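Minutes, project check-in
Item: structure for the 460-residue chain
Input as provided by the requester:
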Amino acid sequence: MDFKGNRMRKLALIGVSVLAIGASAAAVSQTRMGAQAAETYRMLELFGDVVSVVERAYVVETDPKELIEAALDGMLQSLDPHSNYLNVEDLARLNERSQGAYSGVGLEITSENGLVRVITPMDGGPALRAGVEAGDVITSIDGQSAAGLSVAEVSEQLRGPAGEPVVVTFLRDGQEPRDVTIVREVIRTFSVTSRMEGEFGYIRISTFNTNTGRELAEEIAELRGANPNLRGIVLDLRNNGGGLLDAAVAVSDAFLERGEIVSQRGRRPADIHRYNATAGDLTGGLPVAVLINYGSASASEIVAGALRDHQRATMVGLTSFGKGSVQTVMPLRNGQDGALSITTARYFTPSGQSIQRIGIAPDLEVARTRREAEIVARSSFIYSEAAYTNALDASVGSERRGPHSPEEAPPEDFPTDGDYQLQRALDLLRVGGDLHLLERRPLQVASADAASQADTPTGD
């Protein structure tokens, strides 16, 4: 009876899979389709055999649903770092986050080779206040190892009722592991904030969600209304891990009068979708400097690429993360069985440059701190899309720049709590955004060769 039951489950599994594959293969030639279908059916039968053996012979009882969900997730993650299976709970969390409020520690995380790493701590969140930085690796949560856990599993452990603490162990740049106690709270991602910096407006976008376009328009209107002599704007996209494409298009459109913002190109030559600006620059043509760094990813890079290619803004900071791929969320049975988040296209800037793996290079390369300058010179410590072993290629033959000393870094007497990148962006705006008029402040830091042999840098 056990064998018969396993066999029935296996055949049912194979049957459902073959039906799904048959539907997607309808456009393929009959001969090729027949060969592919035969091989696919054989491999699905193998999968059914493996599930049956695990159910029957594994040392402890297993949950078939969890096994199959893990298999689905593993299959998709083998494609590239950003494709994955979302069960019903994961899909609900994704929808919640896109609306801008949830309870947790405020981290954007990803997974590679069994390690869960921080993309960026969210502005104003408890993790940022606790000193967590982009690139930190999560090694344990409340004393339990995080090795081999998926992003969804780590997220589940980090989330919880507001007010409850969680002890997270982080590893950074070869330093000793450190335990950090973070008190969970309701994370309300007000994605846009602003203030005045002398005669210039400073606008910070921390994430791209459903409210970002509206919030940006409101902040620009408030800055211009309260400061009629406003001379320019700094747009800060540092450590912004991205978000919704529509929000990135809306932010770019706020600064542009016309032209293409971004194109996404899929598997076939005809799979091209272009997003264009509409008339109306909300800033009235004020000079703009955009701050980026290696924590600026995805939607941030779309905005940076669009404003750079249209010569609407000058990029200041460090080369961005390099996530130039499009993920489409495809619900399964209207979400009753979760969804697939699968890479379906690459992003290209208006000039046709790929963002994937390469990132957006700054016009004025400036490190925020001397320690950061040393890390750029030892780029093995920089967390970027190119660091993934299975990252999608750029498709254009270009490569991300390797270890090098940044053009500028703070002088030794610069305050440790200062923001040198912001200072240089303001200096640029004071000369009308013209790099040729900007007084350069080159500072030689350790070369890539020397830095690779140096001790791990300490302190800012």
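Outcome recorded: Residues 2-62 form one domain.
No further action items on this chain.
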